[in-house]
């Protein structure tokens, strides 16, 4: 009886929508709050830092693995550095090259540096993964790692942004809009330079930069919330 | 990467950073000994932090160690360095530059303050766990987060090099499981940067050893159990002793079942009271027993149902004699010499559940204790032969020369059923003797003659104490009268062997005089033939008839149990193996343990 089916189906659709939408709404309705307000998760800054640091450590581990694999198969030379033909595309980003430099740098600046780095690597890694996936020389394991790496950069960036937000809310860093509003603006103009890099160089550069990110995050954490595991 | 065996020129051996803030480089002149003097080689480095960087010389030399030290100001992480060795005349000796970045050459210092604590010991006491903890190297700035270090513990038994490495982890403590008590272990630790390859040096070793400790814990439950056990026993004793509740005593200390003979005081059944028991069983004279006997046998239904069975199992053997047997049995006046086994003269032999076998106990025979028991004469058993059984009467009191004729018949209320020893009559001899067991015919035949002789002798010389002592053959010949079936039985149940001093006959046996006192001349008649139940071989009667019970009288030289030891009159030399003394005190039907020893040949 088509006549009776239509209203029934409409009712079903409405019910399903309600359920689904409520779920969606509930997911989105969990911003980070400074106070323990009802309906939001109040993660501590230390907790956030721990999460992003763990994430960055994992990212660095994967990049290290991939780089070793590459080195093993393609460049079995005792002197790994000498082969770097050109600088990494992120060389233009000013990064502190030592402990004192990093410690002396303002927290906001340091946070910005981290974000810049992470943003700079989003596209290159994606393309790297694409090239590996289509290359018959690489096995699926490497391709999966590359994809994972690319995703991780993306996630880490979001995480660091959240940390920055929280820090801004807590008044640790100033509300500098330029640093966070449009991260793409931070990219150097000649960002296409990375397309010219060979895969191995790209891996090498990323490995270095992931280590930088990891270090900077750790230093930042130990400066701001040193009580937990520094 | 094999190094070619060509002479190696000046080269860098290694560059190491300990804390990612400074680093050192060492070089060697290689085979060029003319360059080994200090200052012959110079270190130049290129720091590629800008496109137009230049080569610079080592900021700090240490010529003694051939080391170039880069301090904090000259160290930049994540920036490629390239090193060169140059001679005096700016000659570059390296084919290619030795390039690196500082984070890749970090080898952390070993951790410090390594020590251990005992976590626990396994319940078996054989192994234990240890918690090892340490401090990160002081040079590494872990607190600032500048270096993230992971540690690797290795341990081995002392004086071996079989190092076992535990999993790397970034914390400053780790548990080692499963170390063995008594062994000494050596532990050391090293570390490296997370996600990097190069390890630092090992720390100094510490030694772990745990020796066995007598633990107090194992004693504790033991003591507790001991205390509880003692308490429990005390309580139990109190319960038993103080309360004296008969019921409780019954439950806790159930009485041991004592031998029972119906109608007899159990006290008498205890060890050493055979005399009284004998007396009682014999009726204290006739009177006592008679009170028992009739009751018993009258109540025994099975007695009544024994009937003459013409179809005996051994019919084959007895067929020939069957007719005569039956006739004899049925013919009272005939001097039938039945083989009889007089079993218990006293009707004590009733089937008793307690005793293993109905014991026939003749109080008169108490000294000798070998009451031969009489098997019931199953009527209808074909007569076997003349000499199947001989009842030899050894009663010294037997004045008459006649051999007692013994007949036992079952079935009467006054029947002295030898419930103790059942003898199945398989044959009736023409002479009137009764073969009590077909299987034993031969045996009896063998010993018949001897038995006869002996019996004759014995009949005369009952005072032959020696004989008596030798063989305590006592049996009684029961004459039982069936229910008027016409049998006459000679009630010459006598004890065969008695000590001279004992009053023989009267008390010796019970004779039931059958109603028809037609005591035949059988009593006399048997003299000649006298089927005897060999007194000496009481076992003979036991052979045949006794289906279940019998008395072991002797053990012969072959270690076979003689239920009716062959009659031997000869003095001991001939019978060294018949220590009848041993049988002196054997009660009828029972072999008490103390007598058991006497059975040995």
Any overview of this molecule?
- Chain B: Its main location: membrane.
- Chain B: Pfam families: EpoR_lig-bind (PF09067), GHBP (PF12772).
- Chain B: Keywords: Cell membrane, Disulfide bond, Endocytosis, Glycoprotein, Membrane, Phosphoprotein, Receptor, Secreted, Signal, Transmembrane, Transmembrane helix.
- Chain B: Belongs to the type I cytokine receptor family. Type 1 subfamily.
- The complex is a heterodimer of chains A (230) and B (601).
- Chain A has 8 helices and no strands.
- By secondary structure, chain A is mainly alpha-helical.
- Chain A has a single domain, classed as Growth Hormone, Chain: A (Up-down Bundle).
- In chain A, helix 4 packs antiparallel against helix 6.
- Chain B is an alpha+beta fold.
- Among the domains of chain B are: 95 residues, Immunoglobulins (Immunoglobulin-like, Sandwich); 99 residues, Immunoglobulin-like (Sandwich), CATH 2.60.40.
- Chain B contains 12 helices and 21 strands.
- In chain B, the strands form 7 sheets. A 4-stranded antiparallel beta sheet of chain B has the order 1-2-6-5, with no helix packed on it.
- Chain B is rod-shaped.
- About 38% of the residues of chain B have low confidence.
- Classes of the chains: A mainly alpha (230), B alpha+beta (601).
- At the A-B interface, helix 2, helix 3 and helix 8 of A face strand 8 of B.
Mean pLDDT across all amino acids of chain A: 77
CATH topology of the domain at 112-210 in chain B: Immunoglobulin-like
Q: Give the oligomeric state of the chains in this entry, treating copies of one chain as homo and distinct chains as hetero.
A: heterodimer
Query: Beta-sheet strand percentage of chain B?
Result: 15-25%
Biased composition (Basic and acidic residues) (chain B): 454-470
Region (Disordered) (chain B): 314-349, 445-470
GO molecular function (chain B): cytokine receptor activity
Pfam families (chain B): EpoR_lig-bind, GHBP
């Amino acid at each position: 009886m088509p006549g009776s089916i239509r209203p029934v189906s409409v009712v079903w659709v409405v019910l399903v929508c309600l359920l689904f939408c409520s779920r969606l709404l509930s997911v989105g309705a969990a911003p980070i709050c400074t106070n323990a307000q009802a309906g939001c998760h109040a993660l501590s800054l230390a907790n956030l830092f721990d999460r992003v640091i763990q994430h960055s450590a994992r990212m660095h581990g994967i990049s290290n693995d991939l780089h070793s694999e590459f080195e093993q198969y393609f460049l079995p030379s005792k002197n790994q550095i000498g082969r770097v033909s050109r600088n990494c595309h992120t060389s233009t980003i000013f990064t502190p090259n030592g402990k004192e430099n990093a410690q002396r740098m303002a927290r906001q600046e340091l946070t910005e540096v981290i974000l810049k780095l992470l943003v700079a690597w989003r596209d290159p890694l994606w393309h790297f993964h694409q090239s590996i996936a289509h290359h018959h020389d690489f096995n699926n394991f490497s391709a999966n790692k590359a994809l994972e790496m690319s995703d991780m950069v993306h996630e880490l960036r979001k995480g660091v942004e959240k940390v920055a937000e929280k820090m801004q809310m807590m008044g640790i860093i100033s509300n500098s809009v330029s640093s966070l509003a449009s991260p793409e603006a931070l990219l150097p103009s000649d960002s296409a330079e990375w397309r010219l890099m060979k895969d191995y160089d790209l891996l090498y550069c990323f490995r270095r930069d992931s280590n930088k990110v990891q270090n900077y995050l750790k230093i930042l954490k130990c400066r701001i919330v040193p009580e937990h595991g520094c | 990467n094999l190094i070619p065996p060509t002479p190696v020129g000046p080269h860098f051996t290694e560059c190491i950073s300990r804390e990612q803030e400074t680093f050192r480089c060492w070089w060697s002149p290689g085979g060029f000994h003319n360059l080994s003097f200090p200052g012959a080689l110079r270190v130049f480095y290129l720091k590629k932090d800008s496109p137009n960087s230049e080569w610079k010389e080592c900021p700090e030399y240490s010529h003694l160690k051939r080391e170039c030290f880069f301090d904090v100001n000259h160290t930049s992480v994540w920036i490629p360095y390239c090193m060169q060795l140059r001679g005096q005349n700016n000659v570059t000796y390296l084919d290619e530059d030795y390039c690196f970045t500082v984070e890749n050459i970090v080898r952390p210092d070993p951790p410090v303050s390594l020590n251990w604590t005992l976590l626990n010991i396994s319940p078996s006491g054989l192994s234990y766990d240890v918690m090892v903890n340490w401090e990160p190297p002081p040079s590494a700035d872990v607190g600032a987060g500048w270096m993230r270090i992971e540690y690797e513990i290795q341990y081995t038994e002392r004086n071996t090099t079989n190092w076992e490495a535990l999993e790397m982890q970034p914390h400053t403590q780790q548990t080692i499981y499963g170390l063995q008590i008594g062994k000494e272990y050596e532990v050391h630790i090293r570390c490296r940067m997370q996600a990097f390859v190069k390890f630092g040096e090992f720390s100094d070793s510490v030694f772990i050893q745990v020796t066995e400790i007598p633990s107090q814990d194992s004693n504790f439950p033991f003591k507790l159990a001991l205390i509880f056990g003692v308490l429990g026993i005390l309580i139990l004793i109190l319960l038993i002793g103080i309360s004296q509740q008969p019921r409780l005593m019954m439950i806790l200390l159930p009485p041991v079942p004592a031998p029972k003979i119906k109608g007899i005081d159990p006290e008498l059944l205890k060890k050493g009271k055979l005399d009284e028991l004998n007396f009682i069983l014999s009726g204290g004279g006739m009177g006592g027993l008679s009170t028992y006997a009739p009751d018993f046998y009258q109540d025994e239904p099975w007695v009544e149902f024994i009937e003459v069975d013409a179809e005996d199992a051994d019919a084959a053997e007895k067929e020939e004699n069957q007719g005569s047997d039956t006739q004899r049995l049925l013919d009272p006046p005939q001097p039938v010499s039945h083989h009889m086994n007089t079993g218990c003269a006293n009707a004590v032999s009733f089937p008793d559940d307690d005793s293993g076998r109905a014991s026939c106990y003749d109080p008169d025979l108490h000294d000798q204790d070998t009451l031969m028991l009489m098997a019931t004469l199953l009527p209808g058993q074909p007569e076997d032969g003349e000499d199947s059984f001989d009842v030899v009467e050894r009663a010294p009191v037997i004045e008459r020369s006649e051999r007692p004729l013994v007949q036992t018949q079952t079935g009467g209320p006054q029947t002295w059923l030898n419930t103790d020893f059942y003898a199945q009559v398989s044959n009736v001899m023409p002479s009137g003797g009764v073969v009590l067991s077909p299987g034993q015919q031969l045996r009896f035949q063998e010993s018949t003659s001897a038995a006869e002789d002996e019996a004759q002798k014995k009949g005369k010389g009952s005072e032959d104490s020696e004989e008596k002592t030798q063989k305590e053959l006592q049996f009684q010949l029961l004459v039982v009268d069936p229910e008027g079936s016409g049998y006459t039985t000679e009630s010459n149940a006598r004890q065969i062997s008695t000590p001279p001093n004992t009053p023989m006959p009267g008390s010796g046996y019970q004779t039931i005089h059958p109603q028809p006192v037609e005591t035949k001349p059988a009593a006399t008649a048997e003299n000649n033939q006298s089927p005897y139940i060999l007194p000496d071989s009481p076992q003979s009667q036991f052979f045949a008839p006794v289906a279940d019970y019998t008395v072991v009288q002797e053990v012969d030289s072959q270690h076979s149990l003689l239920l009716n030891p062959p009659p031997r009159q000869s003095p001991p030399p001939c019978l060294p193996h018949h220590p009848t003394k041993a049988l002196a005190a054997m009660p009828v039907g029972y072999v008490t343990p103390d007598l058991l020893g006497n059975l040995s040949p």
